[in-house]
Amino acid sequence: MSFWSTSTSEPRRNFKFILRVTDIPVWVVKNVNLPKISVKEGTHKFLNHTFYFPGTVEYNTVSFTIIDSISDDISARLLERFVGGGYQTPTDGNAAESTLITKGDSVESLGSIKIEHLGNGRDGHEGNSHISFSLQNAWIQDVEFSQALGYDSEDPSEIKVQLRYDFFSFDRGDAGEAPIGGFGTAR
Predict the structure, then answer these.
(1) Count of Cβ atoms closer than 10 Å to residue 180 Cβ
(2) How far is Cα 61 from Cα 160, in angstroms, rounded to an integer?
(3) SS3 at position 19
(4) Are 90 and 55 in contact (CB under 8 A)?
(5) Which of 33, 16, 34 is nearest to 130 (CA)?
(6) In Å, how far from its chain's centre is CA 109?
(7) 0.85 surpassed by pTM
(8) Domains of the chain, first to last
(9) Of the candidates 8, 139, 115, 116, which has an alpha carbon nearest to the alpha carbon of residue 61?
(10) What is the pLDDT of residues 117-176, one digit of tens each?
Protein backbone atom coordinates (compact mmCIF):
# COMPACT_ATOMS: atom_id res chain seq x y z
CA MET A 1 0.00 0.00 0.00
CA SER A 2 1.42 3.36 -0.95
CA PHE A 3 1.83 6.17 1.52
CA TRP A 4 -0.66 8.52 -0.14
CA SER A 5 -3.49 6.00 -0.56
CA THR A 6 -4.84 6.35 2.97
CA SER A 7 -5.75 9.42 5.00
CA THR A 8 -4.25 7.97 8.18
CA SER A 9 -0.71 7.80 6.80
CA GLU A 10 1.41 10.71 7.82
CA PRO A 11 5.17 11.31 7.71
CA ARG A 12 7.09 12.68 10.67
CA ARG A 13 7.34 16.42 10.24
CA ASN A 14 10.36 18.55 11.14
CA PHE A 15 8.34 21.17 13.00
CA LYS A 16 6.75 18.62 15.36
CA PHE A 17 9.34 18.28 18.09
CA ILE A 18 9.97 19.06 21.73
CA LEU A 19 13.41 19.49 23.24
CA ARG A 20 13.43 18.83 26.96
CA VAL A 21 16.36 20.38 28.81
CA THR A 22 16.28 20.62 32.59
CA ASP A 23 15.11 24.08 33.70
CA ILE A 24 14.67 25.46 30.14
CA PRO A 25 11.05 26.05 29.05
CA VAL A 26 10.17 24.07 25.90
CA TRP A 27 8.60 27.11 24.24
CA VAL A 28 11.94 29.00 23.90
CA VAL A 29 13.49 26.27 21.73
CA LYS A 30 13.75 27.35 18.09
CA ASN A 31 15.51 24.34 16.53
CA VAL A 32 17.65 21.29 17.30
CA ASN A 33 19.62 18.85 15.21
CA LEU A 34 19.13 15.13 15.72
CA PRO A 35 21.98 12.77 16.63
CA LYS A 36 24.22 11.38 13.91
CA ILE A 37 26.21 8.16 14.10
CA SER A 38 29.49 7.74 12.21
CA VAL A 39 31.57 4.61 11.93
CA LYS A 40 35.25 5.31 11.43
CA GLU A 41 37.17 3.03 9.15
CA GLY A 42 40.38 1.08 9.22
CA THR A 43 42.20 0.14 6.04
CA HIS A 44 44.51 -2.60 4.91
CA LYS A 45 46.49 -2.27 1.71
CA PHE A 46 47.60 -5.33 -0.19
CA LEU A 47 49.30 -4.93 -3.57
CA ASN A 48 46.87 -2.96 -5.79
CA HIS A 49 43.97 -3.25 -3.38
CA THR A 50 42.62 -1.42 -0.37
CA PHE A 51 40.29 -3.18 2.02
CA TYR A 52 38.10 -1.34 4.50
CA PHE A 53 36.96 -2.45 7.94
CA PRO A 54 34.47 -0.82 10.30
CA GLY A 55 36.14 0.86 13.25
CA THR A 56 34.93 2.82 16.23
CA VAL A 57 31.55 4.49 16.48
CA GLU A 58 31.34 8.24 17.02
CA TYR A 59 28.36 10.44 17.74
CA ASN A 60 28.15 14.01 16.47
CA THR A 61 27.49 16.98 18.69
CA VAL A 62 23.89 18.10 19.09
CA SER A 63 23.16 21.81 18.76
CA PHE A 64 20.05 23.78 19.55
CA THR A 65 19.01 27.40 19.36
CA ILE A 66 16.84 29.04 22.00
CA ILE A 67 15.23 32.44 22.33
CA ASP A 68 16.68 34.49 25.19
CA SER A 69 13.46 35.14 27.13
CA ILE A 70 13.81 38.00 29.60
CA SER A 71 10.95 36.86 31.82
CA ASP A 72 12.45 33.35 32.16
CA ASP A 73 16.04 34.62 32.53
CA ILE A 74 17.31 32.07 29.99
CA SER A 75 20.84 33.52 29.79
CA ALA A 76 21.35 33.15 33.52
CA ARG A 77 19.83 29.65 33.63
CA LEU A 78 22.19 28.48 30.91
CA LEU A 79 25.25 30.03 32.52
CA GLU A 80 24.27 28.46 35.85
CA ARG A 81 24.34 25.04 34.12
CA PHE A 82 27.81 25.83 32.76
CA VAL A 83 29.14 27.05 36.12
CA GLY A 84 27.63 23.97 37.76
CA GLY A 85 30.11 21.91 35.74
CA GLY A 86 32.96 23.49 37.69
CA TYR A 87 33.84 26.65 35.75
CA GLN A 88 34.68 29.75 37.73
CA THR A 89 36.09 33.04 36.45
CA PRO A 90 39.83 33.09 37.30
CA THR A 91 39.73 36.26 39.37
CA ASP A 92 42.89 35.24 41.25
CA GLY A 93 45.34 32.37 41.43
CA ASN A 94 43.43 30.50 44.12
CA ALA A 95 40.20 30.51 42.13
CA ALA A 96 42.03 29.29 39.03
CA GLU A 97 43.73 26.45 40.91
CA SER A 98 40.71 25.28 42.87
CA THR A 99 38.01 25.09 40.20
CA LEU A 100 38.20 22.58 37.42
CA ILE A 101 35.48 21.52 35.03
CA THR A 102 34.67 17.85 35.44
CA LYS A 103 32.54 15.59 33.30
CA GLY A 104 30.55 14.33 36.28
CA ASP A 105 29.71 17.83 37.50
CA SER A 106 28.96 19.04 33.96
CA VAL A 107 26.60 16.14 33.23
CA GLU A 108 24.85 16.49 36.60
CA SER A 109 24.49 20.26 36.25
CA LEU A 110 22.99 20.08 32.75
CA GLY A 111 20.54 17.33 33.66
CA SER A 112 18.62 15.17 31.24
CA ILE A 113 18.34 15.96 27.54
CA LYS A 114 15.53 14.44 25.50
CA ILE A 115 14.55 15.19 21.90
CA GLU A 116 11.00 14.07 21.14
CA HIS A 117 10.02 13.83 17.48
CA LEU A 118 6.24 13.85 17.59
CA GLY A 119 4.00 11.82 15.33
CA ASN A 120 0.25 11.55 14.74
CA GLY A 121 -2.67 12.91 16.69
CA ARG A 122 -3.35 16.16 18.46
CA ASP A 123 -0.66 15.52 21.05
CA GLY A 124 1.80 13.83 18.66
CA HIS A 125 1.66 10.51 20.52
CA GLU A 126 -1.24 8.75 18.79
CA GLY A 127 -0.68 5.16 17.73
CA ASN A 128 2.92 4.90 18.90
CA SER A 129 4.00 7.32 16.20
CA HIS A 130 6.50 9.40 18.18
CA ILE A 131 10.16 8.64 18.76
CA SER A 132 12.66 10.11 21.18
CA PHE A 133 16.40 10.38 21.63
CA SER A 134 17.77 10.68 25.18
CA LEU A 135 21.35 11.93 25.21
CA GLN A 136 23.48 10.09 27.75
CA ASN A 137 26.18 11.94 29.71
CA ALA A 138 25.56 15.21 27.86
CA TRP A 139 27.49 18.34 28.76
CA ILE A 140 27.72 21.88 27.38
CA GLN A 141 30.54 22.28 24.88
CA ASP A 142 29.69 25.71 23.41
CA VAL A 143 27.43 28.60 24.34
CA GLU A 144 27.11 31.37 21.76
CA PHE A 145 25.06 34.46 22.56
CA SER A 146 23.68 36.59 19.72
CA GLN A 147 26.73 37.82 17.90
CA ALA A 148 25.22 40.91 16.36
CA LEU A 149 22.91 43.41 17.96
CA GLY A 150 21.52 46.08 15.66
CA TYR A 151 18.99 48.87 15.55
CA ASP A 152 17.74 47.59 12.22
CA SER A 153 16.50 44.23 13.58
CA GLU A 154 13.43 43.35 15.60
CA ASP A 155 14.29 39.65 15.81
CA PRO A 156 14.50 38.08 19.26
CA SER A 157 17.96 37.46 20.68
CA GLU A 158 19.09 33.87 20.39
CA ILE A 159 21.51 31.61 22.20
CA LYS A 160 23.13 28.72 20.36
CA VAL A 161 24.19 25.77 22.50
CA GLN A 162 26.27 22.78 21.45
CA LEU A 163 26.27 19.60 23.50
CA ARG A 164 28.70 16.69 23.55
CA TYR A 165 27.44 13.31 24.74
CA ASP A 166 28.62 9.70 24.85
CA PHE A 167 25.69 7.99 23.13
CA PHE A 168 21.90 8.10 23.00
CA SER A 169 19.05 5.81 23.89
CA PHE A 170 16.21 5.52 21.40
CA ASP A 171 12.55 5.09 22.33
CA ARG A 172 9.85 4.10 19.83
CA GLY A 173 6.93 5.35 21.88
CA ASP A 174 4.35 3.73 24.09
CA ALA A 175 3.60 0.43 22.31
CA GLY A 176 5.90 -1.58 24.56
CA GLU A 177 8.04 -2.69 21.65
CA ALA A 178 11.43 -4.07 22.58
CA PRO A 179 14.28 -1.59 22.16
CA ILE A 180 16.42 -1.84 19.08
CA GLY A 181 19.52 -3.84 20.04
CA GLY A 182 22.25 -1.45 21.11
CA PHE A 183 19.90 1.53 21.54
CA GLY A 184 17.93 0.54 24.60
CA THR A 185 17.43 2.71 27.64
CA ALA A 186 20.70 3.32 29.47
CA ARG A 187 20.81 2.52 33.17
Answers:
(1) 11
(2) 13
(3) strand
(4) no
(5) 16
(6) 15
(7) no
(8) 11-146+157-171 (2.30.110)
(9) 139
(10) 887 766 655 656 678 899 999 999 999 998 788 899 898 999 999 999 999 988 876 655
Query: Can you say how many angstroms the Cα of residue 113 is from the centroid of all Cα atoms in its chain?
Result: 6
The helices-and-strands tally (H runs, E runs) of the chain is: 3, 10
CA 138, chain centre distance (Å): 8
Q: What is the pLDDT of residues 22-34, one digit of tens each?
A: 888 999 999 999 9
Sign of CA dihedral 138, 101, 157, 153: negative
Q: Which residues pair with 142 in a beta bridge?
A: 162
For 62-114, the pLDDT digits (tens) are 999 999 988 888 999 999 999 888 888 877 777 767 778 899 999 999 999 99
Categorise residue 14: left if φ over 0, alpha if ψ from -120 to 50, beta otherwise.
alpha
**What kind and span of H or E run contains 147?**
none
Contact 33, 62 (CB under 8 A): yes
Under 8 Å between Cβ of 18 and 66: no
Is the CB of residue 65 less than 8 Å from the CB of residue 78? no
Count of CB atoms within 10 A of residue 39's CB?
10
Cα distance between residue 111 and residue 19, in whole Å: 13
